[in-house]
């Protein structure tokens, strides 16, 4: 270990440590501030524990199903090449980056009581099915998170060097052998982290779980926090619930890091990947079917959102356009900040071997309650400046930290491969500092960096986050403006704003993620 | 601090011509988000008040009414707010208990509220009746009360009382109308409820998308569709038990350094300039009917004969038990 630690420059260690400290500070300080204001932590009641149980159940199901479906879809996308593949991959990511209410409306246009599926069932003389309940919650969470799982797995597939597939073909491997020797080791390295990420995302779900859960049975921890804040003004209970969420997060992140086995494929020469193993007609038909089904499931609700909003796009009121500009600036700033935090952290994790602390810290933002973070920051910053003046900087910082877990999920596996494949060579050449970053790190991590940047920009564009606690009329972001339109009966304008948001998020994602769309030849 | 600054500037005012604008006192009004939106009452109100107050009126917006109160409770006496505008009758008991508010100025305004208003602290500026709104083209038989609704196979979408003020209003409505039978009513309604949403926007959106036959909203909701969209298909169902009221109120903060200006603003809120903006922007009834009457279209709305409202102390004391009944009935 000691010789491995050698090439870490002082500046590098400082930036990784600094990034982790900032993340930990933004996670724990607001919680501490709320606790201090509450004057102590409160005990949880039976209703709170029921919320914890429901939250764990729906999160586990959502994560397991998302991952199980993502594996065949990502495999199909990895070994097929077709016209429009890049565009499709970008579009498939859209559910993940939309504001919850917009995505839920799209989902209901397809699966709701008055949705297309039920209309079709009724036309066939069959009974209507209700989406509301645990099934609906899981369906919605799969809809949101399947795209993330597919993208992260696809990266894993694309990271297997072309030479390995070449060798597999030379040895006469069929699909089963390729799966055993190449794909399963890759999945073992990636799947635990992806499962944990989705599990934690679902852990803090609130609006989706309530709307599709059909009532108080579907009470999640985040809703209980909401209730503690607004209904009971019981800050102690809010802090207790938020602490519990964080503890669950830390445990999950540690477990995931423990189960993840490094893939050890070694490096390749970056030849285009050719998949001789996947050339049979059956496999081709299977992959085509899988891609078509995933596309239908993920894109139909988006099409519904787009169709209902497009007619109003041109006539949107001026403040919506101003808010869109503000959102784009916030997204650009958050993306820069996220990359500045994520890259040193990912490289440090890759070099640190068994030390899990950085990786765990990087997952923490997933399990923070937006309401607790927002309120805590409010308590901390208010003595220093007017909250409205801080609205945009605070939003940038919180968005950047909230996107960090996804950026790390994308960067860490690639950084590990980089370290294993090129670390010694770079060290023997005495490559360090900026030169190493410019000649080795950034070019080798181009794909995950592009994906992380695209994802952060899109998430930041669509995130309501903490801005609602701070912003006044002149500082609203696009998602906040969208909610304001909905709150004033202007549902048609809100649908128009949703299309604008969808377009901006996808454009940002598309621009930054180019590197992630390298093709495999089959 | 602010007064020192002000007097310094006034001294300097004779020398620098640009100073007076900056020297105008600032009145800070905390309110909810939708009040300050371009299409809300905020911009017109600000312009009208600033026209002759010689001050700078600044709105600070936070979420909804409950978020507003939560922020004030967090800030306590250190708050920058001079006035808070946008609490409602389900929040006033807690607001009063906080001791943060000062008595309101006396007014001779002729309040057009369905109930007598005597509260010494909170000044009403608009109000509405909660009601279930439906689409006339889709429903034939409209239920006449909660029991008929529960017995029907109509679907409804409601708001969660834990995160939404209309949701809390419905909880108190059922409690006030049925008392000890409230739990039974909720059990009857359980199979009509498609889902419960975090806030009004989501519920109303789901209703417009056709996810439910009816939605918990206000008797004034159909006016928006009629006046702004020329669509007369929406209506509110009159319930025989009577309709629960939501009265939106404003108050002055004890800690305000601009007491007189705050009083002046509260008094201004009962005048024509403020009240005439309310119906077409907030889609509620103005607390004082404007001289020109209500906008054309409001005469088509139902006017419940019986208005229900729990006294604030009682509303606060039955709240937790009513919530427990609601949760139990809907969790079966």
Q: How would you summarize what this structure contains?
A:
Chain A contains 23 helices and two strands. With 522 residues, chain A is an all-alpha fold. Chain B starts with a helix and ends with a helix.
What's the total helix number of chain B? Answer: 15
Largest sheet of chain A: 2 strands, parallel
Task: Give the largest interface.
Answer: A-B, 54 and 59 residues
Just name the CATH architecture of chain A: Orthogonal Bundle
Q: Give the rounded overall mean pLDDT of chain A.
A: 82
**Biggest β-sheet: strands ordered side by side in the sheet of chain A:** 1-2
| Rg over C-alpha atoms of chain A, rounded to the nearest angstrom | 23 Å
Helices, strands, pairings?
The complex is a heterodimer of chains A (522) and B (332).
Chain A: H1 2-5, H2 10-38, H3 46-79, H4 85-92, H5 94-97, H6 100-111, H7 116-123, H8 134-158, H9 162-170, H10 175-203, H11 207-213, H12 221-230, H13 235-259, E1 273-274, H14 281-309, H15 318-351, H16 357-363, H17 370-381, H18 387-428, H19 433-444, H20 446-462, H21 467-470, H22 478-487, H23 491-512, E2 520-521
Chain B: H1 2-13, H2 19-23, E1 26-31, H3 33-36, H4 42-53, E2 56-61, H5 65-75, E3 83-88, H6 92-97, E4 101-102, E5 123-135, H7 146-151, E6 156-159, H8 165-178, H9 182-189, E7 193-197, H10 200-208, E8 214-218, H11 221-229, E9 234-237, E10 243-253, H12 259-268, H13 272-275, H14 278-282, E11 285-286, E12 307-308, H15 312-330
Parallel strand pairs in B: 1-2, 1-3, 6-7, 6-8, 10-12
Antiparallel strand pairs in B: 3-10, 4-10, 5-8, 5-9, 5-10, 5-11
């Amino acid at each position: 270990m000691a010789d491995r630690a050698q090439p870490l420059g002082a500046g590098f260690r400082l930036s990784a440590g600094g990034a982790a400290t900032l993340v930990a500070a933004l996670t724990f300080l607001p919680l501490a501030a709320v606790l201090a204001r509450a004057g102590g932590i409160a005990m949880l009641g039976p209703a709170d524990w029921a919320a914890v149980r429901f939250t764990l159940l729906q999160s586990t199901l959502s994560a397991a199903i998302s991952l199980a479906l993502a594996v065949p879809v990502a495999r199909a996308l990895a070994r097929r090449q077709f016209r429009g593949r890049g565009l499709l991959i970008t579009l498939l990511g859209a559910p993940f980056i939309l504001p919850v209410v917009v995505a839920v409306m799209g989902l209901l246009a397809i699966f709701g009581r008055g949705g297309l599926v039920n209309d079709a069932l009724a036309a066939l003389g069959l009974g209507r099915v209700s989406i509301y309940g645990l099934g609906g919650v899981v369906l919605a969470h799969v809809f949101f998170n399947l795209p993330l799982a597919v993208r992260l797995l696809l990266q894993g597939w694309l990271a297997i060097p072309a030479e390995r597939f070449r060798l597999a073909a030379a040895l006469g491997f069929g699909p089963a052998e390729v799966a055993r020797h190449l794909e399963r080791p890759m999945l073992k390295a990636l799947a635990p982290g992806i499962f944990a990420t989705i599990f934690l995302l679902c852990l803090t779900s609130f609006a989706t779980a309530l709307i599709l859960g059909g009532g108080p049975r579907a009470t999640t921890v985040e809703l209980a926090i909401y209730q503690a804040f607004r209904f009971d003004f019981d800050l102690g209970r809010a802090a207790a619930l938020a602490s519990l969420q964080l503890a669950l997060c830390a445990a999950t992140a540690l477990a995931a890091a423990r189960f993840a086995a490094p893939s050890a494929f070694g490096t390749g020469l970056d030849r285009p990947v050719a998949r001789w193993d996947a050339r049979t007609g059956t496999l081709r038909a299977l992959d085509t079917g899988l891609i078509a089904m995933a596309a239908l499931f993920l894109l139909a609700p988006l099409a519904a959102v787009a169709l209902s909003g497009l007619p109003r796009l041109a006539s949107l009121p001026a403040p919506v356009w101003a808010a869109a500009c503000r959102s784009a600036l916030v997204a650009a700033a958050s993306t820069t900040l996220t990359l500045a935090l994520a890259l040193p952290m990912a490289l440090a994790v890759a070099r640190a071997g068994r030390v899990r602390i950085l990786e765990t810290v990087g997952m923490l933002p997933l399990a923070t309650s937006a309401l607790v973070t927002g309120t805590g920051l409010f308590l901390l910053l208010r003595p220093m400046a007017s909250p409205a003046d801080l609205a945009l900087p605070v939003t940038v910082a919180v968005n950047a930290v909230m996107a960090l877990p996804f950026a790390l999920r994308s960067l860490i596996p690639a950084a590990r491969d980089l370290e294993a494949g090129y670390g010694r060579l770079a060290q023997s050449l005495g490559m360090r500092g900026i030169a190493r970053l410019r000649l080795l790190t950034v070019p080798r991590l181009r794909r995950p960096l592009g994906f992380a940047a695209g994802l952060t920009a899109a998430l930041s564009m669509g995130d309501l986050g903490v801005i609602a606690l701070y912003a006044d009329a002149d500082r609203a972001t696009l998602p906040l403006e969208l909610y304001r339109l909905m709150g004033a009966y202007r549902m048609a304008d809100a649908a128009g704003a949703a299309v604008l948001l969808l377009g901006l998020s996808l454009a940002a994602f598309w621009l930054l993620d180019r590197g992630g769309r390298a093709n495999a030849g089959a | 601090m602010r007064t020192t600054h002000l007097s310094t500037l006034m001294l300097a005012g004779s020398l620098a011509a640009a100073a007076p604008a900056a020297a105008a006192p600032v009145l800070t009004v905390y309110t909810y988000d939708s009040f300050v939106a371009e299409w809300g009452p905020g911009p017109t109100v600000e312009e009208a008040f600033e026209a002759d107050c010689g001050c700078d009126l600044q709105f600070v917006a936070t979420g909804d009414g409950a978020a507003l109160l939560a922020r004030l409770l967090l800030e306590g006496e250190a708050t920058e707010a001079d006035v808070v505008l946008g609490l409602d009758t389900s929040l006033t008991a807690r607001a009063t208990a906080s001791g943060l508010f000062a008595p309101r100025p006396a007014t001779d305004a002729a309040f057009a509220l369905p109930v007598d208003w005597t509260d010494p602290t909170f000044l009403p500026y608009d109000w509405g009746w909660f009601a279930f709104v439906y689409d006339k083209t889709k429903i034939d038989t409209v239920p006449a009360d909660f029991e008929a609704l529960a017995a029907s196979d109509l679907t409804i979408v409601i708001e969660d009382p834990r995160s939404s003020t209309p949701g809390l209003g419905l909880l108190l409505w059922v409690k006030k109308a049925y008392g000890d039978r409230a739990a039974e009513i909720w059990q009857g309604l359980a199979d009509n409820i498609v889902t419960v949403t975090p806030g009004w926007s989501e519920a109303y959106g789901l209703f417009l998308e056709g996810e439910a036959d009816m939605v918990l909203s206000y008797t004034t909701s159909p006016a928006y569709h009629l006046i702004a969209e020329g669509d007369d298909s929406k209506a509110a169902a009159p319930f025989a038990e009577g309709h629960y009221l939501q009265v939106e109120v404003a108050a002055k903060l004890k800690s305000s350094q601009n007491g007189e200006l705050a009083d002046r603003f509260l008094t201004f809120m009962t005048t024509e300039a403020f009240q005439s903006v309310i119906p077409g922007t907030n889609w509620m009834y103005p607390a004082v009917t404007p001289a020109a009457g209500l906008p054309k279209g409001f005469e088509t709305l139902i006017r419940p004969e019986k208005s229900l409202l729990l006294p604030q102390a009682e509303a606060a004391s039955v709240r937790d038990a009513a919530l427990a009944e609601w949760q139990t009935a809907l969790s079966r």
